[in-house]
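On clarity, I found the account of how folds are encoded harder to follow than it need be. What matters is that the chain and its backbone geometry are given together, residue for residue. For the editor and my fellow referees, an illustration may be useful. For illustration, here is how one protein appears when written out as sequence plus structure tokens:

___
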Amino acid sequence: MSEQKLPSRAEDFSEWYNQVILRAELADYAPVRGCMVIRPLGYALWENIQRALDQRFKAVGVENAYFPLFIPQSFLEKEKKHIEGFSPELAVVTIGGGETLEEPLVVRPTSETIIGHMWEKWIKSYRDLPVRLNLWNSVVRWELRTRLFLRTLEFLWNEGHCAYATYGEAEAESRLMLDVYADFAENEAAVPVFKGRKTESERFPGADQTYSIEAMMGDRKALQAGTSHNLGQNFARSFDIKYLDKNNQQQHCWTTSWGLSTRFIGAIIMVHGDDQGLIMPPRLAPFQAVIVPIFKNDEDKAKVMEAVQRIRAELLAADIRLKVDEREGLSPGFKYNDWEMRGVPVRIEVGPKDVEKGTVALARRDRPGKEGKSFVPQAGLAPVVTQLLIDLQQSLYDRALAFRTANTYDPKDYAEFKSAVEKGFAFSYWCGDGQCEAEIKEETKATTRCIPVDGQPASPGVCIHCGKPAKEKAIFAKAY
């Protein structure tokens, strides 16, 4: 722990991000280049993300399963686009138990192939469909440029995999999971997102259609925060996943996959954090409140701790996730700064004068200094803190949405477009031509983040780059 000041977000956003993760003890660098160790606070945040998503998956009928970490290399070679897309990122095992393997094994970059192999055995009839599975696991992708949470060689995620009898069902599934991810992002993480369709160049290798949620970070760059893919019959044909339909005819299945990873922790940090450190959205925060006892001698300590234990019991009974900071040898000011760094939404200060008055001081993390501080009675504190957490959750979302709105532009021409993607997002007509898209990327370093499924204009326009007719608008931005 250090009281050294953080770099400011405005001066060096990248270094601010790295330092927040290290100082808040979310994660640390592992001895293997590009890997990270997730520390208890970071893992508790991931557990809360996992829990919120898992409840949503199960509510729509998805079941959890587990598949092996190792995949025969020949499996990946069955789907041509898939292996082309992943080949630069693969970690391959060629020796096991001191002997050269008959067939190299790939360390799982994603599980479509091994799942396809098993489905070929399991799915025989239309009565076996749909199959709707989710995995909670880690995957390995040998990235060249890595960054804590955002891009690491190994990361944790969910990967959903579903098989259906018809294209329509698979497409509906892809869109449903896109909505599930957006609902989670906005209502649990307080991160506003654009839901949209990826362009052909940005699709998942082997997918017919890829959808994503895209969020604006505090430096106005975009982050792809979750994806959902309609894989068509590509993997079903490669792995011969067939079923007998009601007319006793053999048909290939239609499959989907969808995922959200620990990179979402990076989104929470970059969307909500400030120059004091993290700000955790209350619904996901490992600790929603911290109690800091304040005393100078044993007599004061006895009185203060008696009140603290009473408050603690009341808040825990109200299902508020809570920490009492009983560390010795540290000043109250140090503790305040330390918990601000860790992003705990509400701080409760209890000193001898508070005990005498029957009050506590409440400090909300999203409003630094006096503005965020109030003095309230100890009696009936739980509903007050509960409401404060609700207000704070909404405040974080409103603030993030206002920031995104203020930094999303509708440029009138290409000169304005180039300026817009330097400052934030551009929402512009695009003709749909891949060559045009590649030229925009080459000239501006901005990519087509998605074509939003909501908020499209009623009438067509002209492409912001080439001037050809365009039916839809896309979000363009520089991205992580």
About this structure: The chain has 14 helices and 25 strands.
